[in-house]
Predict the structure.
Amino acid sequence: MVTGTSERPAGERGLTAGELAVTRQLLVHGPATRGDLGDRLNLSYASMSRLARALIVGGMATEDLEPAAAIGRPRQILTAVPSARHVVGVKLTGDTAYGVVCDLFGEVKATTRAALPRREEGGVVPIAATVKLVAQLASRLAPKVPTVDGIGVSVGGVIVDGSVVREGTFLGWRDVDLGGPLRDRTELPVIVTNDVTALAREQLWFGAGRTHSTFGIVTVGAGLGVGVVRNGVAVEELIDNGHLLAHSPVDSSGPSCSLGHRGCVAAYLNREDLERQASAAAGHPVTIGDLVRARAGGDQAATRRLDDAARALGHVVASFAGALQTTCIVLGGEDLAAFTDSPALQEAIDDRLRPGPLETQRCTLDVLTTPLTFTDWARGAAVAGIQHVLGA
Protein backbone atom coordinates (compact mmCIF):
# COMPACT_ATOMS: atom_id res chain seq x y z
CA MET A 1 0.00 0.00 0.00
CA VAL A 2 1.25 3.49 -0.84
CA THR A 3 2.08 5.38 2.34
CA GLY A 4 0.80 8.89 2.96
CA THR A 5 -2.47 8.28 1.09
CA SER A 6 -5.98 9.35 2.01
CA GLU A 7 -7.93 7.12 4.37
CA ARG A 8 -11.16 7.64 2.48
CA PRO A 9 -12.61 4.51 0.83
CA ALA A 10 -12.09 4.54 -2.95
CA GLY A 11 -15.80 4.76 -3.58
CA GLU A 12 -16.00 8.08 -1.77
CA ARG A 13 -13.43 9.80 -3.97
CA GLY A 14 -15.65 10.13 -7.06
CA LEU A 15 -18.05 13.05 -7.55
CA THR A 16 -21.65 12.95 -8.64
CA ALA A 17 -22.35 13.92 -12.25
CA GLY A 18 -23.48 17.39 -11.17
CA GLU A 19 -20.51 17.94 -8.87
CA LEU A 20 -18.16 16.80 -11.62
CA ALA A 21 -19.73 19.18 -14.14
CA VAL A 22 -19.31 22.15 -11.80
CA THR A 23 -15.75 21.15 -10.83
CA ARG A 24 -14.78 20.77 -14.47
CA GLN A 25 -16.11 24.25 -15.24
CA LEU A 26 -14.07 25.71 -12.39
CA LEU A 27 -10.91 23.88 -13.46
CA VAL A 28 -11.21 24.65 -17.16
CA HIS A 29 -12.60 28.20 -17.04
CA GLY A 30 -11.62 29.46 -13.59
CA PRO A 31 -13.60 30.92 -10.66
CA ALA A 32 -17.24 31.83 -11.24
CA THR A 33 -20.42 32.79 -9.43
CA ARG A 34 -23.19 30.29 -8.76
CA GLY A 35 -25.36 32.19 -11.22
CA ASP A 36 -22.77 32.04 -14.01
CA LEU A 37 -22.21 28.33 -13.43
CA GLY A 38 -25.93 27.65 -13.39
CA ASP A 39 -26.34 29.46 -16.71
CA ARG A 40 -23.47 27.54 -18.33
CA LEU A 41 -24.71 24.18 -17.10
CA ASN A 42 -28.44 24.90 -17.45
CA LEU A 43 -29.04 24.33 -13.74
CA SER A 44 -31.71 25.92 -11.55
CA TYR A 45 -30.66 28.20 -8.72
CA ALA A 46 -31.68 25.57 -6.17
CA SER A 47 -29.70 22.79 -7.90
CA MET A 48 -26.64 25.00 -8.29
CA SER A 49 -26.79 26.02 -4.63
CA ARG A 50 -27.02 22.39 -3.55
CA LEU A 51 -24.02 21.41 -5.68
CA ALA A 52 -21.98 24.38 -4.47
CA ARG A 53 -22.65 23.47 -0.83
CA ALA A 54 -21.67 19.85 -1.47
CA LEU A 55 -18.38 20.87 -3.10
CA ILE A 56 -17.56 23.32 -0.32
CA VAL A 57 -18.33 20.77 2.41
CA GLY A 58 -16.29 18.16 0.53
CA GLY A 59 -13.28 20.47 0.34
CA MET A 60 -13.40 20.64 -3.47
CA ALA A 61 -14.20 24.36 -3.62
CA THR A 62 -14.27 27.55 -1.60
CA GLU A 63 -16.58 30.54 -1.90
CA ASP A 64 -15.50 34.10 -1.15
CA LEU A 65 -16.68 37.61 -1.84
CA GLU A 66 -15.17 39.22 -4.91
CA PRO A 67 -13.37 42.55 -4.38
CA ALA A 68 -15.81 45.38 -3.78
CA ALA A 69 -17.45 46.42 -7.03
CA ALA A 70 -18.03 50.04 -7.97
CA ILE A 71 -21.75 49.41 -8.37
CA GLY A 72 -23.92 46.94 -6.44
CA ARG A 73 -23.07 44.36 -3.83
CA PRO A 74 -19.98 42.12 -4.13
CA ARG A 75 -20.77 38.66 -5.50
CA GLN A 76 -19.87 35.25 -4.08
CA ILE A 77 -17.17 33.59 -6.23
CA LEU A 78 -16.75 29.81 -6.28
CA THR A 79 -13.15 28.56 -6.74
CA ALA A 80 -11.74 25.03 -7.03
CA VAL A 81 -9.23 24.01 -4.32
CA PRO A 82 -5.94 22.77 -5.86
CA SER A 83 -5.06 20.61 -2.85
CA ALA A 84 -8.39 18.77 -2.88
CA ARG A 85 -6.85 15.87 -4.81
CA HIS A 86 -3.33 14.68 -5.66
CA VAL A 87 -2.56 12.00 -8.22
CA VAL A 88 0.66 10.27 -9.27
CA GLY A 89 1.32 10.05 -13.01
CA VAL A 90 3.82 7.60 -14.52
CA LYS A 91 4.96 7.48 -18.14
CA LEU A 92 6.54 4.17 -19.21
CA THR A 93 9.04 4.27 -22.08
CA GLY A 94 10.97 1.27 -23.35
CA ASP A 95 13.55 1.53 -20.56
CA THR A 96 12.48 4.14 -17.97
CA ALA A 97 9.54 5.04 -15.74
CA TYR A 98 9.06 8.80 -15.29
CA GLY A 99 6.88 9.84 -12.34
CA VAL A 100 5.22 13.04 -11.15
CA VAL A 101 2.64 13.93 -8.52
CA CYS A 102 0.15 16.67 -9.42
CA ASP A 103 -2.59 18.60 -7.67
CA LEU A 104 -6.15 19.06 -8.94
CA PHE A 105 -4.99 21.76 -11.39
CA GLY A 106 -2.39 19.43 -12.91
CA GLU A 107 0.48 21.39 -11.36
CA VAL A 108 3.53 19.19 -10.87
CA LYS A 109 4.57 19.10 -7.20
CA ALA A 110 7.45 16.62 -7.43
CA THR A 111 9.15 14.34 -9.96
CA THR A 112 11.11 11.10 -9.92
CA ARG A 113 12.35 8.44 -12.34
CA ALA A 114 13.76 4.92 -12.35
CA ALA A 115 15.07 2.41 -14.88
CA LEU A 116 12.66 -0.35 -15.81
CA PRO A 117 13.59 -3.93 -14.85
CA ARG A 118 15.97 -5.80 -17.14
CA ARG A 119 14.16 -7.44 -20.06
CA GLU A 120 13.48 -11.16 -20.01
CA GLU A 121 14.10 -13.59 -22.83
CA GLY A 122 12.18 -12.44 -25.89
CA GLY A 123 12.64 -8.78 -25.04
CA VAL A 124 9.70 -8.59 -22.61
CA VAL A 125 9.89 -6.15 -19.70
CA PRO A 126 8.89 -8.17 -16.56
CA ILE A 127 5.32 -7.30 -15.64
CA ALA A 128 5.31 -8.05 -11.89
CA ALA A 129 8.57 -6.15 -11.43
CA THR A 130 7.15 -3.18 -13.35
CA VAL A 131 4.07 -3.10 -11.13
CA LYS A 132 6.35 -3.11 -8.09
CA LEU A 133 8.46 -0.30 -9.57
CA VAL A 134 5.45 1.93 -10.32
CA ALA A 135 4.17 1.39 -6.75
CA GLN A 136 7.61 2.31 -5.43
CA LEU A 137 7.61 5.54 -7.45
CA ALA A 138 4.19 6.39 -5.99
CA SER A 139 5.49 5.74 -2.48
CA ARG A 140 8.52 7.91 -3.19
CA LEU A 141 6.28 10.79 -4.31
CA ALA A 142 3.61 10.40 -1.61
CA PRO A 143 5.46 12.35 1.13
CA LYS A 144 5.63 15.38 -1.17
CA VAL A 145 1.86 15.99 -0.89
CA PRO A 146 -0.77 15.65 1.86
CA THR A 147 -2.47 12.66 0.21
CA VAL A 148 -2.27 10.54 -2.92
CA ASP A 149 -5.74 9.82 -4.28
CA GLY A 150 -4.95 7.78 -7.37
CA ILE A 151 -2.44 6.74 -10.03
CA GLY A 152 -2.43 7.27 -13.79
CA VAL A 153 -0.05 5.30 -16.02
CA SER A 154 0.54 6.04 -19.71
CA VAL A 155 2.02 3.60 -22.21
CA GLY A 156 2.67 3.83 -25.92
CA GLY A 157 0.34 1.27 -27.49
CA VAL A 158 -3.21 -0.02 -27.48
CA ILE A 159 -5.01 0.09 -24.11
CA VAL A 160 -8.45 -1.33 -23.35
CA ASP A 161 -10.78 -0.92 -20.37
CA GLY A 162 -8.41 1.56 -18.72
CA SER A 163 -6.32 -1.34 -17.47
CA VAL A 164 -5.10 -3.84 -20.08
CA VAL A 165 -2.18 -3.19 -22.42
CA ARG A 166 -3.35 -5.09 -25.47
CA GLU A 167 -0.33 -4.03 -27.50
CA GLY A 168 2.72 -2.42 -25.89
CA THR A 169 5.40 -2.70 -28.55
CA PHE A 170 8.08 -0.72 -26.70
CA LEU A 171 7.71 -3.01 -23.66
CA GLY A 172 7.20 -6.29 -25.52
CA TRP A 173 3.73 -6.65 -23.94
CA ARG A 174 0.62 -8.32 -25.34
CA ASP A 175 -2.66 -8.52 -23.39
CA VAL A 176 -1.06 -7.49 -20.10
CA ASP A 177 -3.32 -6.37 -17.23
CA LEU A 178 -1.29 -3.59 -15.64
CA GLY A 179 -4.07 -1.75 -13.83
CA GLY A 180 -5.46 -4.66 -11.81
CA PRO A 181 -2.23 -5.72 -10.07
CA LEU A 182 -1.31 -2.07 -9.47
CA ARG A 183 -4.69 -1.40 -7.84
CA ASP A 184 -4.24 -4.49 -5.64
CA ARG A 185 -0.75 -3.44 -4.60
CA THR A 186 -1.46 0.23 -3.85
CA GLU A 187 -5.15 0.06 -2.84
CA LEU A 188 -5.73 3.17 -4.95
CA PRO A 189 -7.83 3.94 -8.03
CA VAL A 190 -5.69 3.31 -11.13
CA ILE A 191 -6.17 4.14 -14.79
CA VAL A 192 -3.89 2.94 -17.58
CA THR A 193 -4.11 4.88 -20.83
CA ASN A 194 -2.37 5.37 -24.14
CA ASP A 195 0.25 8.10 -23.73
CA VAL A 196 -1.12 10.36 -26.46
CA THR A 197 -4.67 9.88 -25.18
CA ALA A 198 -3.41 11.05 -21.77
CA LEU A 199 -2.10 14.20 -23.45
CA ALA A 200 -5.49 14.64 -25.13
CA ARG A 201 -7.15 14.43 -21.70
CA GLU A 202 -4.69 17.01 -20.35
CA GLN A 203 -5.31 19.36 -23.28
CA LEU A 204 -9.07 18.91 -22.89
CA TRP A 205 -9.05 20.48 -19.43
CA PHE A 206 -5.92 22.62 -19.36
CA GLY A 207 -5.09 23.43 -22.99
CA ALA A 208 -6.84 23.45 -26.37
CA GLY A 209 -10.08 22.16 -24.85
CA ARG A 210 -10.68 25.53 -23.24
CA THR A 211 -11.49 26.99 -26.66
CA HIS A 212 -12.15 23.96 -28.90
CA SER A 213 -14.59 21.11 -28.21
CA THR A 214 -13.11 19.00 -31.02
CA PHE A 215 -9.39 18.83 -31.79
CA GLY A 216 -6.61 16.40 -32.66
CA ILE A 217 -3.15 15.79 -31.22
CA VAL A 218 -0.15 14.65 -33.25
CA THR A 219 3.11 13.70 -31.52
CA VAL A 220 6.44 13.02 -33.20
CA GLY A 221 9.31 11.10 -31.64
CA ALA A 222 10.05 7.40 -31.53
CA GLY A 223 6.85 7.03 -33.53
CA LEU A 224 3.99 9.15 -34.76
CA GLY A 225 1.09 9.18 -32.32
CA VAL A 226 -2.38 10.68 -32.55
CA GLY A 227 -5.09 11.57 -30.06
CA VAL A 228 -8.67 12.70 -30.61
CA VAL A 229 -11.06 14.86 -28.59
CA ARG A 230 -14.53 14.93 -30.10
CA ASN A 231 -17.34 17.10 -28.71
CA GLY A 232 -15.55 17.52 -25.38
CA VAL A 233 -14.73 13.83 -24.89
CA ALA A 234 -11.30 12.21 -25.31
CA VAL A 235 -11.57 9.12 -27.51
CA GLU A 236 -10.03 6.31 -25.46
CA GLU A 237 -9.64 3.61 -28.10
CA LEU A 238 -8.69 4.51 -31.67
CA ILE A 239 -9.31 1.95 -34.39
CA ASP A 240 -5.68 1.91 -35.51
CA ASN A 241 -3.62 3.86 -32.93
CA GLY A 242 -2.58 6.30 -35.66
CA HIS A 243 -1.33 3.67 -38.12
CA LEU A 244 -3.45 4.86 -41.05
CA LEU A 245 -2.26 8.45 -40.79
CA ALA A 246 1.35 7.44 -40.16
CA HIS A 247 1.47 5.39 -43.33
CA SER A 248 -0.52 7.65 -45.62
CA PRO A 249 1.40 8.42 -48.85
CA VAL A 250 3.22 11.71 -49.36
CA ASP A 251 5.61 11.09 -52.29
CA SER A 252 5.70 7.87 -54.33
CA SER A 253 9.36 8.53 -55.13
CA GLY A 254 10.35 9.14 -51.51
CA PRO A 255 12.20 6.90 -49.02
CA SER A 256 10.74 3.68 -47.63
CA CYS A 257 9.57 3.15 -44.07
CA SER A 258 10.35 0.05 -42.01
CA LEU A 259 7.17 -1.60 -43.34
CA GLY A 260 8.20 -1.06 -46.94
CA HIS A 261 5.83 1.81 -47.82
CA ARG A 262 7.56 4.19 -50.19
CA GLY A 263 7.22 7.86 -49.38
CA CYS A 264 4.70 7.50 -46.55
CA VAL A 265 4.50 9.88 -43.59
CA ALA A 266 6.31 7.46 -41.27
CA ALA A 267 9.25 7.23 -43.66
CA TYR A 268 9.85 10.94 -43.13
CA LEU A 269 8.84 11.40 -39.48
CA ASN A 270 9.60 8.22 -37.51
CA ARG A 271 12.88 8.84 -35.72
CA GLU A 272 14.23 5.38 -36.48
CA ASP A 273 13.47 5.67 -40.20
CA LEU A 274 14.76 9.23 -40.45
CA GLU A 275 18.02 8.38 -38.69
CA ARG A 276 18.46 5.17 -40.71
CA GLN A 277 18.16 7.04 -43.99
CA ALA A 278 20.49 9.85 -42.89
CA SER A 279 23.08 7.34 -41.60
CA ALA A 280 23.01 5.38 -44.86
CA ALA A 281 23.55 8.55 -46.88
CA ALA A 282 26.39 9.75 -44.64
CA GLY A 283 28.09 6.38 -44.25
CA HIS A 284 28.15 6.69 -40.44
CA PRO A 285 25.58 6.92 -37.61
CA VAL A 286 23.51 10.14 -37.68
CA THR A 287 20.93 11.15 -35.07
CA ILE A 288 18.13 13.67 -35.44
CA GLY A 289 20.13 15.94 -33.14
CA ASP A 290 23.04 15.70 -35.58
CA LEU A 291 20.72 16.74 -38.42
CA VAL A 292 19.47 19.75 -36.48
CA ARG A 293 23.02 20.86 -35.71
CA ALA A 294 24.09 20.32 -39.31
CA ARG A 295 21.16 22.41 -40.56
CA ALA A 296 22.12 25.22 -38.19
CA GLY A 297 25.61 25.07 -39.71
CA GLY A 298 24.23 25.50 -43.23
CA ASP A 299 24.34 21.86 -44.37
CA GLN A 300 21.97 21.67 -47.35
CA ALA A 301 21.47 17.90 -47.24
CA ALA A 302 20.37 18.03 -43.58
CA THR A 303 18.14 21.01 -44.34
CA ARG A 304 16.42 19.17 -47.20
CA ARG A 305 15.88 16.06 -45.09
CA LEU A 306 14.29 18.00 -42.23
CA ASP A 307 12.27 20.13 -44.66
CA ASP A 308 10.88 16.95 -46.23
CA ALA A 309 9.92 15.69 -42.77
CA ALA A 310 8.30 19.02 -41.88
CA ARG A 311 6.35 18.98 -45.13
CA ALA A 312 5.08 15.47 -44.37
CA LEU A 313 3.99 16.66 -40.92
CA GLY A 314 2.14 19.57 -42.54
CA HIS A 315 0.18 17.14 -44.70
CA VAL A 316 -0.70 15.06 -41.62
CA VAL A 317 -1.96 18.18 -39.84
CA ALA A 318 -4.17 19.21 -42.76
CA SER A 319 -5.51 15.69 -43.38
CA PHE A 320 -6.23 15.09 -39.70
CA ALA A 321 -8.03 18.44 -39.33
CA GLY A 322 -10.13 17.73 -42.40
CA ALA A 323 -11.07 14.26 -41.20
CA LEU A 324 -12.04 15.53 -37.75
CA GLN A 325 -13.65 18.69 -39.15
CA THR A 326 -11.84 20.76 -36.55
CA THR A 327 -10.03 24.08 -36.66
CA CYS A 328 -7.43 23.01 -34.07
CA ILE A 329 -4.55 20.56 -34.11
CA VAL A 330 -2.04 20.29 -31.24
CA LEU A 331 1.52 19.24 -32.11
CA GLY A 332 3.80 17.73 -29.47
CA GLY A 333 6.69 15.37 -28.95
CA GLU A 334 10.38 15.28 -28.19
CA ASP A 335 11.39 15.81 -31.84
CA LEU A 336 8.89 18.57 -32.59
CA ALA A 337 11.33 21.50 -32.67
CA ALA A 338 13.33 19.82 -35.44
CA PHE A 339 10.31 20.16 -37.74
CA THR A 340 8.60 23.33 -36.52
CA ASP A 341 11.83 25.24 -37.14
CA SER A 342 11.40 24.51 -40.84
CA PRO A 343 9.23 26.91 -42.91
CA ALA A 344 8.16 23.90 -44.98
CA LEU A 345 5.70 22.88 -42.24
CA GLN A 346 3.59 26.03 -42.45
CA GLU A 347 4.01 26.21 -46.22
CA ALA A 348 2.49 22.74 -46.61
CA ILE A 349 -0.43 23.62 -44.32
CA ASP A 350 -1.06 26.95 -46.08
CA ASP A 351 -1.02 25.25 -49.47
CA ARG A 352 -3.63 22.71 -48.30
CA LEU A 353 -5.81 25.51 -46.89
CA ARG A 354 -5.69 27.54 -50.12
CA PRO A 355 -9.19 27.63 -51.67
CA GLY A 356 -9.96 27.10 -55.33
CA PRO A 357 -10.84 30.06 -57.58
CA LEU A 358 -14.60 29.42 -57.32
CA GLU A 359 -14.69 28.56 -53.60
CA THR A 360 -16.06 31.16 -51.20
CA GLN A 361 -15.56 29.32 -47.92
CA ARG A 362 -12.25 30.06 -46.21
CA CYS A 363 -10.86 27.51 -43.76
CA THR A 364 -8.68 28.55 -40.85
CA LEU A 365 -6.62 26.23 -38.69
CA ASP A 366 -5.06 26.83 -35.28
CA VAL A 367 -1.88 24.76 -34.95
CA LEU A 368 -0.73 24.77 -31.34
CA THR A 369 2.73 23.48 -30.46
CA THR A 370 3.76 21.92 -27.16
CA PRO A 371 7.29 20.44 -27.16
CA LEU A 372 7.31 17.68 -24.57
CA THR A 373 9.76 16.38 -22.00
CA PHE A 374 9.14 13.04 -20.31
CA THR A 375 7.93 14.98 -17.27
CA ASP A 376 5.21 16.46 -19.50
CA TRP A 377 4.24 12.97 -20.66
CA ALA A 378 3.98 11.87 -17.01
CA ARG A 379 1.88 14.94 -16.22
CA GLY A 380 -0.53 13.82 -18.92
CA ALA A 381 -0.84 10.48 -17.13
CA ALA A 382 -1.48 12.32 -13.85
CA VAL A 383 -4.23 14.46 -15.37
CA ALA A 384 -5.87 11.30 -16.74
CA GLY A 385 -5.63 9.96 -13.19
CA ILE A 386 -7.22 13.13 -11.77
CA GLN A 387 -10.14 12.82 -14.15
CA HIS A 388 -10.53 9.13 -13.31
CA VAL A 389 -10.53 9.81 -9.56
CA LEU A 390 -13.14 12.54 -10.00
CA GLY A 391 -15.30 10.21 -12.07
CA ALA A 392 -14.75 11.77 -15.50
Q: What stands out?
A: The longest strand covers residues 96-103. Residues 252 and 271 are 20 Å apart (CA to CA). The longest helix spans residues 300-324. The domain at 213-326+335-371 is CATH 3.30.420.40 (Nucleotidyltransferase; domain 5).
